[in-house]
């Protein structure tokens, strides 16, 4: 059996056979090692990469970017993506991660950059965005088509109540009330569907938003429902500022608290407490909305975040369209976060939503 190659030759073969591109620079940012995959991704000959500036090869963003800072060794970079346009007009998207190389004294001696072709994923993402745009246009069209007859129906119901009040008996008034209630429910459902279809990843950095101010607004709007349920809404005294559009944060908080009022209170009269907390957790802000209601079986923990899916046990007088929690989840994921619930039957539920802190 033959022995393995010398350590230096073995290392060189391992780097060269890597499915990802590898570039290694010295402390001055000059490339000292480049494997074949890196050369293929950059459209260059491997030998021509050695001696080039690592920053000039990779950075395509504004000065001060995370990638540029990492190439100068001041920080690491996690999966920043750049586009390379080759001489033949072909475009390649490359995901770049970097790590500083250090000696035994922990002094920076260079940078290693890992390159991965993400062109296929980028193309799939563009196709998905186009499909989402088509879906949004379709939902807008359907909503418009539904709203026109709905407005007419509610208008005629109002006229019947005004002009034929003395003619209709109690049964007739009851039927008209039911028709109007169904129409209002349909109107709310159309509104929620439109909102769900329009939620997408923000194109720019979101403003700093004070969630405490929004929570006070939600509490004011839900005051009558809270009093009718005999419930108490406990808000945090202080909250961290969050990088979320105020409208989207309002949707998350109002839907979570509204869901707790509909599903998460004890007893027929609904006496109970809904507690809201917002805390900093690593690189995230975490929203927690806890109730003391019936709880949710583990088999339903994911299902209730799907559109038109609701939990059991809606309180008398409350409505649930099965869209609120779907909006919460979609907003969280659009900002790079997530939403989930911790609950067991008979032990209440705690809904969690994570948003990146920056």
Account of the protein in words:
By secondary structure, the protein is of the alpha+beta class. It has three domains: 111 residues, Beta-Lactamase (2-Layer Sandwich), CATH 3.30.450; 80 residues, Helix Hairpins, CATH 1.10.287; 154 residues, Histidine kinase-like ATPase, C-terminal domain (Heat Shock Protein 90). 43% of the residues lie in helices and 23% in strands. A five-stranded antiparallel sheet has the order 2-1-5-4-3. The protein has a five-stranded mixed sheet with strand order 7-9-10-12-11. Strands 6-8 form a two-stranded antiparallel sheet. It is elongated and about 95 Å long. The protein starts with 6 loop residues before the first helix and ends with a strand. 26% of the residues are buried.
Name of the CATH class of the largest domain = Alpha Beta
What's the overall geometry? elongated
Strand fraction equals 15-25%
Helix content: 40-55%
Q: What is the CATH architecture descriptor of the largest domain?
A: 2-Layer Sandwich
Give the tally of structural domains. 3
Number of DSSP E strands: 12
Q: In a few lines, what is going on in this structure?
A:
This protein is an alpha+beta fold.
Defining key terms:
358 residues, alpha+beta, five-stranded mixed β-sheet, 43% helix, Helix Hairpins, 12 strands, single chain, 3 domains, Heat Shock Protein 90
